[in-house]
Amino acid sequence: MEFRVLGPLEVLGGTEPIALGRRRGERCLLGLLLLDAGAVVPLDRLLDLLWDGDPPEAARGTVKTHVARLRSVLDPHRDGRLGVRLQRRGEGYLVDVDPDAVDAHRFRQLSARAMRASGAEDRSTMLREALRLWRGPLLADVASDRLRDRVGTGLAELRLSMLEEWAEAELDRGRHRQLIAELVDLVQAHPLRERLVGALMLALGRDDRQADALALYRRTRDALGEQLGLDPGPELRGLHDQILRGDPAPAPAPTGSTLTGPVPTAPDAEHVRPAQLPAHTRHFTGRGGQLRELDAVLAEVTGGTGPAVVVISAAAGTGKSALAVHWAQRVRHRFPDGQLYLDLRAHAAAPALRPIEALAALLAALGLPAERVPTEPDQATGVYRSLVADRRLLIVLDDALDPEQVRPLLPGGPTAMVVVTSRLRLGGLVAIEGAQRLALDVLDRDEAVALIGAVVGADRIRAEPDAVHRLVEVCDRLPLALRIAAANLADEPDTGVAAFVDRLAGARLASLRVDGDDRAAVRVAFELSYRRLDAAVRRMFRLVALAPGPDVTAGTAAALAAVPPGRAAALLAVLTDAHLVHQVAADRFRMHDLVRTYGRERASAEEGDRGRDAATARLFEWYRMAVDEAARRLYPEKLRLPPPEAETDPGRVPARHPPRFGTEPAALAWLDAERPNLVAAVVAAADTGPHRYAWLLADALRGYFWLRMHLVDWKTVAEAGLRAARTAVEPAAEAAAHLSLADLDTFRSRYPDAIAHYERALAFTRATGWLMGQSAALGNLGNVYWRSGRLAEAAEHYTSALDIDQRTGWRAGQAVKRGNLGSVCRALGRLDEAREHYLAALALDVEVGSRNAEGVDLGDLGDVYRAQGRLDEALDHATRGLAVLRAVGDRGSEAETLRILAEIHRDAGRHEAALEAATAALALARDTGERRTETDSLNTLATVHTQLGRPAAALTLHEQALQLARETGTYPEVEACLGLAAAHRRLGTPDRADEHLRRAADLSHRYGYRLLAERARDALDATS
């Protein structure tokens, strides 16, 4: 069967339509289930959608009847033989069908494929195919406009985004003249879509109609100012300036997101110029032919033809990375938009980067806040390609594993160049992506001699030329072996080259193979360097090789070796001089992957399993103590699993010298710097043990991820903690992992998933008798219910959690629950109770030292004082709260406090200050991905425009808020309805105003929003 929802609802069996009957309710039910094909849709949501939030008492029975009738048509035998099953699952229903049979799913898939296409023609063709699936508005014959707004906003926005992508692809094909008529219609329908306007301006400019293009810009600028109080964005302004300068063929406007509408960039992301190339390799020698080949590819790419991807493939130790970085440094001035460098870690200690992790790193380097990085690979790829489109970037991808790892990281346009290094040939990139392969061999003899001379000096080369030639051959002319051997020779100025070579050759006879290669030169060079070291330095070398992350510091090295940090720093300096580690930043050291492999082999041989395990456990314990110290400084109110005690945990290895943090910024800076190592440690502990460190670290990092919103790493760490807990059958640890995953889903407004995780956590905490865990699960469930508008349930959960906290004496937990109860009372209009709760919470915050919670509660108190008309006190509390939140780095709460400040300024008549604060709150909320705060900020900004006599601008902003409120909660939905009513009243459309007022009155009465209900009732009374 084939199902069509992009237009009137249709079900086809083969090519013939299947009659579903004329009952709108059952057809609408099927359409709603098909939009989430393969997923369970909760019955409560279906009831809410089918009856617009007001289901009759018989609604559940009606749905049951609808389902039975649909089954009789779609699955009469109840066995799925027609390819579809309609099933009851728990408290919901699902359509079990191949998603590809549903046109909405195919539209998303085709859109994603189109955005991965490298050529404009292919992209245009695929987008046209995707857009043809639309036959009209979503569920045109069964859904009301309101229902369509509630369930179809994302699809409608994606359709508009794909129309924009298609228009830009057509422009890239040079079809501007044929495109103008269609773009005129699209711009008339969507006059504030700046990408569409930019595409039409570009088409007009290329058709020598510059005057029309400039007139269009003026109309758009005026409309944006009148309706939104905004100026055109930097892309549109830049295009306008190009046309004014008479540029005959200005570049296309930058593309937007491929999957979710406009690219969620930070305000300055367009202007970030990454410069990530590592430093030149010292004494780089030779490779003239390969450098010329790379120069030739660059000439073709910048000329608009030829491949944009070069693969440097060679065996380990041949200098692939050194060549790539050396050439990239030479030509970086040819890439004015920046240079990206990423180690893909195919052969590192930590697992190779997954594409989603690589994309997160690249997007961060391009200026995209971590919280805006999608966690799904296809979406992240689309955002990445949108950000790099039409930018002159040089991208170096070092140590690639396979083509599948690289493909999502390749830009779609021709203006960037990508250099990939790998031990493999990566033939798939050559065959499919048209990459050019550059094979690298060992150095020729003259180049090898020159490299040795650069290290030891020309005099020693001239004194013993034959011995130097022997040294070159003993080292197999491998750059890595030559560098290490030359460094050793330089450290022995009184040793003749011939004697040194005799010693090296003798060691070689006893050596083993490296990575299956028949040359043992690299191992011999390592062995010679290693044996020359003191015993303490050798021990540090082999233990540092055990670190699971990409680098080490003096602190982590000290933990591994059980020595003081100062001693560790001195030993690392010796290893640096011996070329066995290299320093990449202040107090940060890395190993070449071959060196690390050798070091681990030495650790196995000389430390044994017991010694290796003890060193790793010391490192993990040091990390645990350090993260715990940072957590106490940054978020003491966050519940954490109790640490293992030596007397109850015989496997615990004590660690010495963990870091101490005197300030919140110091703690946050350490976590930021160590994040890649901490993620690697959690994954390593989950995979190979000790498992307890996986869940302890994952749990302690939960508050950090909430502050910083590194969503990809958050998910990786939480899932690793859960995996370890299940392996070890530790129910309390499993509860903690579910709490973390639930927090992540709450942030992403995935409330049903969050509730499921919190309920699992609650079950585990009850089974184990972990009372503080029960409190955390109950309190967080209350948060989800509060966001969903279920205030009575939220208050019930908060009260139960507070009772546990008072019985256990958990003061930090009491602070959180009192603040949460204040929020419920504030929403219910019980302002005096809200103030008392917030004051109690604030006192507890100060007592336990929770600066973050203190900042939040100060802002919330300011909001209550504002609602009570005490504006001076409101301003004082909100301003103090904002300062605290900025100091601790909680950007999400900073956005909400800015919004509160905007409302205080608005109520005080300081409209310019209100506009500034509300605009800043909205921008920060979008940056941090705080959808609820974004919704509230849109409403706040709209109310300021209303007071300034700009009802059209207010209307547009409230409408945006209303769309977002479908997923973020009913309270902002009521605020939006009240604002829309006021705007419509001023615009002379009283019928629409009354419609919104009735909706606001109904919702506020149903959910108990007393103050909002009074506002709605007063407004309705004023119109009667």
Automatic annotation (TrEMBL):
<dbReference type="InterPro" id="IPR051677">
    <property type="entry name" value="AfsR-DnrI-RedD_regulator"/>
</dbReference>
<dbReference type="Pfam" id="PF00486">
    <property type="entry name" value="Trans_reg_C"/>
</dbReference>
<dbReference type="InterPro" id="IPR016032">
    <property type="entry name" value="Sig_transdc_resp-reg_C-effctor"/>
</dbReference>
<dbReference type="GO" id="GO:0043531">
    <property type="term" value="F:ADP binding"/>
</dbReference>
<keyword id="KW-0805">Transcription regulation</keyword>
<dbReference type="Pfam" id="PF13424">
    <property type="entry name" value="TPR_12"/>
</dbReference>
<comment type="similarity">
    <text>Belongs to the AfsR/DnrI/RedD regulatory family.</text>
</comment>
<dbReference type="InterPro" id="IPR036388">
    <property type="entry name" value="WH-like_DNA-bd_sf"/>
</dbReference>
<dbReference type="InterPro" id="IPR005158">
    <property type="entry name" value="BTAD"/>
</dbReference>
<keyword id="KW-0802">TPR repeat</keyword>
<dbReference type="InterPro" id="IPR011990">
    <property type="entry name" value="TPR-like_helical_dom_sf"/>
</dbReference>
<dbReference type="Pfam" id="PF03704">
    <property type="entry name" value="BTAD"/>
</dbReference>
<dbReference type="GO" id="GO:0003677">
    <property type="term" value="F:DNA binding"/>
</dbReference>
<dbReference type="GO" id="GO:0006355">
    <property type="term" value="P:regulation of DNA-templated transcription"/>
</dbReference>
<keyword id="KW-0804">Transcription</keyword>
<keyword id="KW-0238">DNA-binding</keyword>
<feature type="repeat" description="TPR">
    <location>
        <begin position="775"/>
        <end position="808"/>
    </location>
</feature>
<dbReference type="InterPro" id="IPR001867">
    <property type="entry name" value="OmpR/PhoB-type_DNA-bd"/>
</dbReference>
<protein>
    <submittedName>
        <fullName>SARP family transcriptional regulator</fullName>
    </submittedName>
</protein>
<dbReference type="InterPro" id="IPR027417">
    <property type="entry name" value="P-loop_NTPase"/>
</dbReference>
<dbReference type="InterPro" id="IPR019734">
    <property type="entry name" value="TPR_rpt"/>
</dbReference>
<feature type="domain" description="OmpR/PhoB-type">
    <location>
        <begin position="1"/>
        <end position="97"/>
    </location>
</feature>
<feature type="DNA-binding region" description="OmpR/PhoB-type">
    <location>
        <begin position="1"/>
        <end position="97"/>
    </location>
</feature>
<dbReference type="GO" id="GO:0000160">
    <property type="term" value="P:phosphorelay signal transduction system"/>
</dbReference>
